Every structure is written in structure tokens, then in C-alpha cells.
Amino acid sequence: MLTLAIIKPDAVKNRLTGKILAHLEADGFVVRAARLVKLTVAEAESFYEVHRARPFFRPLVTFMTSGPALALALERDDAVMRLRDVIGATDPAEAKPGTVRKLYAESKERNAIHASDSPENAAREVGFFFAERELRGL
Ligand code: CMP
Q: What is the pTM of this model?
């Protein structure tokens, strides 16, 4: 099963990409596709469409377009729920010790990593970044 992660602009800028990837690989995830992307405003608005009415939508789009981010299609069994466990709560102040956000996130907005929240959204979000031929593996 695949899920989508995005190592966000704060973590890429702070050179935490390698540490976060190592953390995920150590937890059993396999990288099936990866691309460094600088999202446009239109792309970020479309990706976060479900949050359009929320007060944090505009700052979220501004942040997500502020620099390069690393989109990852990650595979393992129970990938969606497992990735959410390993990254921890949205707000690093509430994340459990040892989770990616507890270790590397700056704040609820600059929270280092995104993960799909359901199998349906994982399929949509993987498709947002990657074409079928990029997911075929070896
Ligand atoms: P992410 O998993 O990328 O999905 C939506 C993002 O909105 C979330 O991570 C946070 O970075 C950001 N965000 C900012 N403020 C809030 C908030 N009050 N509640 C939820 N998400 C927020």
C-alpha cells in the first residue's frame, strides 16, 4: 500500500531531509517515487482544497510555496495509518516523543512533514504528484 508524504519547506531548508528519510526507512517504509518540487500557489491551493475555508488556509499556502519540498510516495503495509503514527500530531507540542514532528518540527504550521490522512486521500495525493509510470518500481 502507498501513501504520500511531503517533507515541507521548513525541513528542506533546515537540511533535515536525510534525517527524516532515514527515520521513515528505519520504520519500514520504502521510497517508491520522490521529487523535489516548488509548488505554485495554484498547486498548493488545489492540494489543500479541503482546508480552503479554514483560517490557516492562506498562511498554509504561503508557507508551502515558500521553497522546495520533497514529495514522496512511500510503501509499506498499513502505510497510511503507520505514517501518521510515525510523524506524530500536527502540533509538535502535542506529538509523542520520538515522532518526526516532535524531533524536527518548528510549529503547528511549520511542522516538517505532511502525510495523507486516509486511503482515499492517499490515492488522490499520490496521483497529484506522480504518474503511474513513476510508481512501477524496479
Ligand atoms: P498537513 O498535514 O500538511 O495538513 C494541513 C496543514 O495545515 C497541517 O499539516 C498544518 O501544517 C497546517 N495547519 C496550520 N494551522 C493548523 C490548525 N490550526 N489545524 C490544523 N492544521 C493546521
A: 0.96
